[in-house]
Amino acid sequence: MAESRLHELSARGQSVWIDYLSRDLVQTGELKRLMDEDAVVGVTSNPTIFQKAISQGNAYDEQLKELLDTESDPKEIFLQLAVRDVKSALEVLAPVHEKAPEDGYVSIEVDPNFAYDTKATYDEAIRFHEWIDRPNLYVKIPGTEPGLQAIEDCIAGCHSINVTLVFSLPRYREVVEAYLRGLERLAEDGGDLTKVRSVASFFVSRVDTETDKRLDAIGTEEALALRGKLAIANARLAYEHYLEAFSGPRWEALEAKGALPQRCLWASTSTKNPAYRDVLYVEELIGPHTVDTMPEETIKDFQDHGEVRGDTVLEGIDEAHKLFDQLAAVGIDYDDVVATLEREGVQKFSDSFAELLDGVMAKRGALVTS
Fold first, then answer.
1. Which of 140, 229, 272, 348 is catalytic?
2. Based on CB atoms within 10 Å of each CB, which residue in 13, 64, 91, 328 is the most buried?
3. Which of 15, 33, 108, 59 lies closest to 294, judged by CA?
């Protein structure tokens, strides 16, 4: 098959992952097709994604029937369903991981209701790693302030972590620091640093959605001219910090023991505003040693008309720094924007999780009476 646009993207050192998972995706061979034709080398999932998968069709009915007599807790029923999907996807992606250990991962997320509970987050992350026990598993932990210690402790225990719901540059720096401290503790304990990996999922499009709403409310010519700019600038400055953090004496000491950098993963890269190019966030954040996890529609759109111009994540760094001052001058409080996004992000996942459990019980009830 001829090289596709996503293969070209991959050739520049950016890994293409998908941000959806379902039983049908694996069982129909669609995941394998995406790997072959669309350069896909990883899968992420979250409560919203599983909610959609389980609520549609009857792919889960057989397993639900098996669980009728043994399990009544809706969360435990959901986890049985989700873990089977994750394990199946891990098997499909295992050859990728064996060939390129930084890829071939599938992510499963801890209960979003634990986002502000360090111990509960840590305990569930360890449970998932012990339950699934595959080298290419990522457990997703939200990058909230209480999540930082759980992330560090998991890394120190040689458990690979996908840090999710990162919106702000200060929080991203804290996430990187948690990873580095975890690695240092692992090294002190004589652990094998080559066995642990991490990505930091930096959310993109939602930053523009929230900021543009505020710029529209301000309504001045200067404010309106700044719409659609913060998300890309924010991510580019995160990548700038990535380059700084994973260089120099501190990092070199860890690297000498086998440690690998915590890659930036661009999440929420579908375009929410129809006025913007539908592949804007993919095209503008291309760079080596990064990951872009895309929804199905964005995969299709980029394959159809995406442009790979070069390492665009490295462009406009000076302008990105200046943008923060320009936004402040028109009345945008960056700290409040990103705090709002983190709070709402956790709430959206919690709401989806509650809806998911309700859906599981509704399906279970229907099977009981059928």
1. 140
2. 64
3. 15
